[in-house]
Write a structure and sequence with these properties.
heterodimer, A: 581 residues, alpha+beta, seven-stranded antiparallel β-sheet, five-stranded mixed β-sheet, 14 strands, 14% strand, B: 554 residues, 22 helices, globular, Myotubularin-like_Pase_dom (chain B), protein phosphatase binding (chain B), Myotubularin phosphatase domain-containing protein (chain B)
């Protein structure tokens, strides 16, 4: 029973300009809060997905009415003023309920129906196949194998069924090592740099305490090191600050003792934990929301938030990994505490720096599926999909996305996609509209039957490729490894993310749109030209095969960037638009 | 004075030149009257692959020497912010070279400067000096209204020594009144027309502060001059670029501001803008922070904040927007002044015109604006740009107002990437040339001095060089399309960025950004990718002085 209602005479305050507040109607549907501005000459609508709502606050009564302040997870802030106290309260309580579902089944993905055939939906889920990526790296090979030792989640219930481990590590070593690693998250391969056999591996912290050892774990690390015969040593990188790691020893966890493992070089990197990051983002957002701050207020606030310091720490770690692999030809084993937050950030960033494939549309999707989704980054907890422990929420994935954006600023021609692609992904990590980011790990997604009941995000994004592409992309072969500058000045505040909805702050003319449209015009001309060519020549069968390989999503998905089709609203379905229900 | 007296050692062999981000080069170092040359090829004939340094000695801002054993290292910090290092075998040679450079770079006599000696064959001396006559600018206004006239009251620079011979003034005011009004304004800078807003007939004027003094003196002619601009019942705005407090204090020194009682139709707005020493110090601190590669993120942000450069950018843009708003939205005329009327005043009036007037946003129009609102308007370039951010010399009258203006224009170009016909490259070139140049355009402090030094007769104009077809292309923005509208920038801190292209020009590699720019050019022009420059030519370009390169190409 969807509770749909509407409230008239609602004002929407503009945070930055002193323009007259908009006046309009607020609608609550099953999935969205919609505001229709009646005072504008052109019909203006604001759609806010309930899942995107982070907080709803009632502010003290003003002369204009009862203010309701909504903060969204995609950094949209909406400040409404409602005439009647009763209306305000009702909207408030409804939004609280709607924005914090208790059960997974209530998530949007389970009701989202783009009217797509079952077959296409299934093809959609198969679009990203991690095995293909391992093949691309040349795995299986003499040193590495894909094993199904975890098929029943007996080794590790937060890892996927198939993992890549050294051939030299037999089942006993794997099982033994898993007992010595927090939550059984054993060292597995994240990325193999084919050029020199150096590998990036990831795991959780060892249960070493002050003195414990584990022969199998030591053998596991030896096997990883020996899988790279070109290097006499390997790095073990603990991405935590040293103090945090030391504190863990008292709890029977900790870090590797260099004396117990042959030929490892141990190193702390010092990325802060999820709680520090959550507080840092909170402070950053407070800075972004200041009303007419001075330059000093802003810069001081930016500094005090520590946000860019954390972004730099993650980037520095990624750069360290990439350099170790490429320049020192050494394999690296990375962990933090559980190996699903900082480890995911650092490993995926290093892959992105080393391999141009991950800078393509398809490659970036693979990277997220591989390092984040499959390896058990707890999206559900970190994004607060369900009503749960607020201390589990943390912008770990946001930081990764920002690091990619920072790289785009330094290497404008190295990525196939543009900033909007990053923002789309970031939106959907929180939207729960697609199944990819639900739950906390592969096992949980199976239990939720997301592969049967929901859609995958990736085909929907591929279908919008035209508007998400980077017109300056110079192709796959233009740049190999990226070596970003990591001096502090190279990191910029990302206005397009944290003040994304404050349009007034952005450049008033958009180079991206301009280049995209001149590109699409050019492509149309070329298409026309090639059509003429095709009339003359028999159609090439190659083109037909290519077209059939990717299913056509076109007819089933709305074209615009909204999260649900606008037509639903225009049709007046579900009873909104009729005044009070 | 003979230059040769200043040169103690003219050539040294086996000097190692290094510069951040470029491979070191060994070669013969040679000092001439105006240049420091380094050729990696002993014969001196440049061959493909040989690196040459042609550094205008005027560009050297600070010379630091370090002696270790029998050799020494000289660090040259340039006014364009680049830093070069020379490793010189031989202690004596090192000391001699250092003191020669110091002596040559501090020659202060205008007529001894390089522009008076520079004679490129591709240009004629008189070219580019009379591209933007005020008469022509006035014709545009005269075709709309008869309220303004050209006056040559200052033809012999006696009414105002820092104004050009011809100015635009209200038609209803005769030269006699102007002369009297001039006596009531500091330095004789009486209110003149800076910009006429065709859209609604409002005008922007500029002047210096009135000399009201402690006894609140009045001047009937000055009041009349300003009075004729406004019709009955009309209101105008005076934007004073000092704080109300500072303006009040100026009375004790004989200056002051327009009291409401004597100028009843004018409303005063105070928008304090930094200038003089604090602004120079802000520039120095920013450059220091940019060059400190050892600082962490927090330290960087706090130094960026405490140098206050971006605050000055924000304040300048805000004030220019205010002036533009008065004209365009309030439909009211505006008078802008600070104290002398040669610094922040020009910053505001020039910037407001870029915001309001599409014809100032073309390559030619922008040159005209600089000529009219900075050079002829008497911004003392010689004093303000004598030293840049590295100099250890005691500060005299240096202040980077022109750089601040260029930075603000860069901010506009970032927010309106299609609306300016010229690119960042032009702004960088203007910065370089304002501080050290082969051309006479930015020499001297005002037109009177330029006349005395015969700058127009004896030096080449920068514009002549810039506007050569082959050269001009480099300064154009491939995305430009005419935009007739006012370009209102956002002045929120989130919208203002540090100008990396200038402050990090010699610190970070720009390879990937250059490639992106070439890609933009290719897409915008729909043509083939530009011919790839060889690494050598890129290196030699980044090392050498553009003007010298032209000379070298003879």
């Amino acid at each position: 029973p969807h509770h749909v209602r509407c409230v008239e005479n609602v004002k929407l305050l503009d945070r930055y300009t002193n323009r007259k507040a908009a006046n309009g109607t607020l609608y609550l549907t099953a999935t969205h809060l919609i505001y229709v501005d009646a005072s504008a000459e052109v019909r203006k609508e604001i759609w806010i997905l309930h899942h995107h709502i982070a907080t709803v606050e009632k502010l003290p009564l003003t002369t204009a009415g009862y203010p309701l302040l909504i903060h969204c997870k995609n950094f949209h802030v909406a400040h409404f003023v409602i005439g009647q106290e009763r209306d305000c309260h009702e909207v408030y309580t409804s939004l609280l309920k709607l924005s914090q579902p208790v059960k997974s089944e209530e998530l949007y993905a389970f009701s989202y129906n783009p009217k797509m055939s079952k077959e296409n939906r299934e093809i959609g889920w198969k679009l990203i196949d991690l095995k293909v990526d391992y093949q691309r790296m040349g795995i299986p090979n003499d040193y590495w194998e894909i094993t199904d030792v975890n098929k029943d989640y007996e080794v590790c219930n937060t890892y996927p069924p198939e993992i890549v481990v050294p051939r030299a590590a037999n089942k006993a070593v794997v099982i033994g090592s898993s007992r010595f690693r927090s939550r059984g998250r054993i060292p597995v391969l994240s990325y193999l740099y084919k050029e020199n056999n150096a590998a990036i591996c990831r795991c959780s912290q060892p249960l070493s305490g002050f003195s414990a050892r584990c022969l199998e774990d030591e053998q596991m690390l030896q096997a990883i090191r020996e899988a790279n015969p070109g290097s006499p040593f390997m790095y073990v990188v603990d991405t935590r600050p040293k103090l945090n790691a030391m504190a863990n020893r008292a709890a029977g966890k900790g870090y590797e003792n260099e004396d117990n493992y042959d030929n490892i070089r141990f190193k702390f990197i010092g990325i802060e934990n999820i709680h520090v990051m959550r507080n840092s983002l909170q402070k950053l957002l407070e800075v972004c929301e200041m009303k007419s701050p001075s330059m000093s207020d802003f810069l001081t606030g930016l500094e005090n938030s520590g946000w860019l310091r954390h972004i730099k720490a993650v980037m520095d770690a990624g750069v360290f990994l990439a350099k170790a692999v490429k320049d020192e030809k050494a394999s690296v084993l990375v962990h933090c505490s559980d190996g699903w937050d900082r480890t995911a950030q650092v490993c995926s960033l290093a892959s992105l720096l080393l391999d141009p494939f991950y800078r393509t549309f398809k490659g970036f999707m693979v990277l997220i599926e591989k390092e984040w989704i499959a390896m058990g980054h707890k999206f559900s907890h970190r994004c607060g999909h369900l009503d749960g422990d607020p201390k589990e929420v943390s912008p770990v994935f946001t930081q990764f996305i920002e690091c990619v954006w920072q790289l785009m600023q330094q290497f404008p021609c190295a990525f196939e996609f543009n900033e909007r692609f990053l923002l789309e992904i970031h939106d959907h990590v929180y939207s729960c509209q697609f199944g990819n980011f639900l739950g906390t790990c592969h096992k949980e997604r199976e239990d939720l039957k997301i592969f049967e009941k929901t859609h995958s995000l990736w085909p929907f994004l591929l279908q919008k490729k035209q508007e998400l592409r980077n017109p300056l992309y110079r192709g796959f072969t233009a740049y190999k490894e990226l070596q970003p500058n990591t001096l502090p000045f190279s990191f910029q505040f990302w206005c397009g993310m944290y003040n994304r909805f404050d349009k007034g702050m952005h450049p008033k003319q958009c180079v991206l749109d301009h280049l995209l449209s001149s590109m699409s015009q050019k492509m149309k001309l070329e298409d026309n030209a090639s059509e003429l060519e095709n009339v003359k020549q028999p159609s090439s069968c190659c083109a037909v095969v290519l077209a059939a390989a990717e299913p056509c999503w076109h007819s089933t998905v709305p074209q615009h960037s909204r999260l649900i089709p606008r037509g639903q609203y225009a049709g007046g379905g579900q009873g909104f638009g009729r005044g009070r229900s | 004075m003979e230059f040769s007296e200043l040169i103690k050692t003219a050539t040294v062999e086996s000097v190692l030149l290094s510069c951040v981000g470029l491979p070191a080069v060994k070669g013969t170092l040679c000092i001439t009257s105006h240049h420091l040359l380094l050729s990696s090829c002993p014969g001196g004939d440049s061959q493909p692959g040989t690196l040459e340094l042609w550094l205008l000695i005027r560009n050297v801002d600070a010379v630091e020497k370090r002696i270790a054993g029998s050799s020494g290292t000289i660090t040259l910090r340039c006014k364009d912010l680049k830093v070069l290092q020379l490793e010189i075998p031989g202690m004596e040679e090192c000391l001699n070279i250092a003191s020669s450079i110091e002596a040559l770079s501090s020659v202060d006599s205008v007529m001894m400067m390089y522009p008076f000696f520079y004679r490129p064959q591709s240009l004629k001396l008189e070219e580019g000096w009379h591209l933007f006559p005020l008469e022509q600018y006035f014709q545009r206004i005269a075709s709309q209204t008869s309220q303004w006239r050209l006056s040559d009251v200052n033809r012999d620079f006696t009414t105002c020594p820092t104004y050009p011979p011809t100015v635009i003034v209200p038609a209803a005011v005769d030269d006699d009144t102007l002369q009297k009004a001039a006596r009531f304004r500091q330095g004789g800078r009486f209110p003149v027309l800076s910009y006429y807003h065709c859209k609604n007939g409002t005008a922007m004027l500029r002047s210096s502060q009135p000399l009201t003094g402690p006894n609140r003196k009045r001047c009937r002619e000055d009041e009349m001059l300003l009075g004729t601009i406004l019709d009955e019942g009309e209101r105008g705005f005076i934007i004073d670029t000092r704080s109300a407090q500072a303006a009040k204090q100026a009375r004790m020194m004989g200056g002051g501001t327009e009291p409401k009682s004597s100028y009843p139709q004018w409303r005063r707005l105070h928008r304090p803008l930094e200038r003089g020493r604090p602004l120079q110090e802000s520039f120095i601190k920013l450059v220091e922070a940019c060059n400190d590669t050892s600082i962490n993120m927090d330290r960087w942000l706090s130094r960026l904040e405490s140098c206050r450069w971006l605050s000055h950018v924000k304040a300048a843009l805000s004030t220019a927007c205010l002036a533009a708003q008065c004209l365009d939205r309030e439909e009211a005329s505006v008078l802008v002044h600070g104290a002398e009327g040669t610094d922040t005043t020009l910053l505001v009036t020039a910037l407001a015109q870029v915001i309001l007037d599409p014809s100032c946003r073309t390559l030619a129009g922008f040159q005209g604006l600089l000529e009219r609102e900075w050079i002829e308007a008497g911004h003392p370039f010689h004093l303000r740009c004598a030293r840049s951010a590295y100099s250890h010399a005691r500060l005299k009258q240096e202040a980077p107002l022109f750089l601040l203006f260029l930075d603000c224009v860069w901010q506009l170009s970032r927010q309106f990437p299609f609306s300016l016909e010229f690119s960042e490259h032009l702004l960088l070139t203007l910065f370089d040339n304002a501080y050290a140049s082969a051309y006479g355009t930015f020499l001297c402090n005002n037109e009177k001095e330029r006349c005395l030094c015969k700058v127009r007769e004896s030096t080449h104009a920068l514009w002549a060089w810039l506007n050569q077809p082959g050269e001009k292309k480099k300064y154009l923005n491939p995305l430009y399309s005419h935009n007739a509208l006012v370009i209102w920038p956002s002045v929120e801190p989130q919208s203002i960025q540090l100008w990396q292209g200038l402050f990090f020009r010699w610190i970070r590699s720009s390879q990937y950004l250059d490639e992106a720019w070439a890609e933009v050019q290719r897409l915008a022009e729909g043509g083939d990718p530009p011919v790839k420059e060889s690494v050598e030519s890129r290196l030699s370009r980044s090392l050498s002085d553009p003007a010298a390169q032209t000379e070298n190409g003879r």
